[in-house]
Amino acid sequence: MEFNEKLVKLRKEKGMTQEELANEIGVSRQSVSKWELGECEPDIAKLKEISKLFHVSTDFLLLDDEELHQDEKKNTSTTIIKIIPSILIGLGGIGIIVSIILAFLYPHYDCGLNCASIIGYLFLDWCSNAVLWRFGLFLPSFLCVLIPIVLFLKENIKKNNK
Prior knowledge:
Elements: H1 3-13, H2 18-25, H3 29-37, H4 44-54, H5 58-62, H6 65-105, H7 118-127, H8 132-161
């Protein structure tokens, strides 16, 4: 739907004549008639007044319905793209915590070493070849946390250099 069609529809929904609309926004009735016939469009100041009068956005008035839907789809996909790193970090964090808990619940001391730190314990467990299934959880989880952080830092460095 074009601007002129939207203007006619909004004016009629509000029960206004062209004359009443013209008086509300400070133009002649002939200007409103030309807008509704599609011969010309209002300037930006009048467009703002029309949007306030009918309680609609200027985007709604100016963009075709198809363009509006494309913008909405674009905003939705942008939002999803922004959420994905947070989801990856959350899932990766949970995976890391679960793998560390599993390493402590099911220890393997085949290497003959004794270590008190968590990192040392994980490496000790790795030596015993029993952590392959744990690293099947730990490593992807670690990457799920690391990759979004690295990409975020890389993007910020790029922005700061510009």
